[in-house]
Amino acid sequence: MAAAAMALQVVAAGGGCCCQRPVLGPDRRRRLVAAARAAAAAKVSEEGKVRLGGSDVAVSKLGIGAWSWGDTTYWNDSEWDDRRLQEAKAAFDTSIDNGMTFFDTAEVYGTALMGAVNSESLLGGFIKERREKEQIDVAVATKFAALPWRFGRGSVLSALKKSLDHAYEQGLVKAVGVSNYNEKRLRDAYARLKKRGVPLAANQVNYSLIYRTPELNGVKAACDELGITLIAYSPIAQGVLSGKYTPEKPPTGPRANTYTPEFLTKLQPLMNRIKEIGESYGKNPTQVSLNWLTCQGNVVPIPGAKNAGQAQEFAGALGWSLTGDEVEELRSLAREIKGIKMPIEES
């Protein structure tokens, strides 16, 4: 699979206003900006949030992926019905209730062209319904890519330019990022955006305890160096690190091609140790695996929540931390596992 050229945009779902501002001198403006950012940083720390790269957008330390919401191509056994809709709504509400207010979606998640319900539309509806009851501060990341109706490289660049001109520079979008960018593309995007005075806030890539390619191909190091937040999708390897799959009971559907009984057999020593460590904290394998990622620094995992139970489970990954020795022990055990090949951000 070729690397995707995608744009990640983060918008605040809270209310806002537009008003005329007095003209300020450059020195006073700089002082006011510095003071505002210092105050914002203090508020972020107090609320337990993290800032996305060099942007002014603060998000919860753990986000929620909405890929499965409305999808009929990979998830949900190829069908979407009212029960699944209500479960997705419950996942959203439970996430909000537990302080996980950062949601990731994309225009192709649950695309209507495939007979599904669009994830962006579902998420927007959930936010609107919740805000009718109370004011909530939600950050939403969405993405677009080189799709069939965008013919050629120029059309994607044109879409990106329009996005910057009309969205970011007019304040409609609060931050800009990319997805599945290798180190070379990441550095190039960072430099190009910097020339326009736009900070590259995030790079969203596949990253988990058993898929640590970002550590090996220079992406994680580049993110740390340039101040770009790494958003980790598939942080529990599409459920494999939850411990619910075994060589005798592998996952079904498309995942079965990657997580075979042979692979799951090799995974057992790591899973056994994850369970042992989790028991000492009163945590399960999912929570340990997510916490391992947050311990890497500059990483925001976005596990996918299909229902309220999963969202509640993910919340248990916050508020505690593995020790440095435990982090390295799990990494060492994971190095013994080979066989996952997902080259999308390697090409």
Automatic annotation (TrEMBL):
Stretches that traverse the bilayer: none
Entry keyword annotation includes Oxidoreductase: yes
Record-level GO cellular component terms: cytoplasm
The NADP-dependent oxidoreductase domain, residue ranges: 61-161, 162-333
CDD domains: AKR_AtPLR-like
Highest taxon above the source species: Eukaryota
GO molecular function terms listed in the Swiss-Prot or TrEMBL record: oxidoreductase activity
PROSITE patterns: ALDOKETO_REDUCTASE_2
Keywords: NADP, Oxidoreductase
Family assignment from sequence similarity: Belongs to the aldo/keto reductase family.
Name of the molecule in the record: NADP-dependent oxidoreductase domain-containing protein
Natural source organism: Oryza barthii
Lineage of the organism: Eukaryota, Viridiplantae, Streptophyta, Embryophyta, Tracheophyta
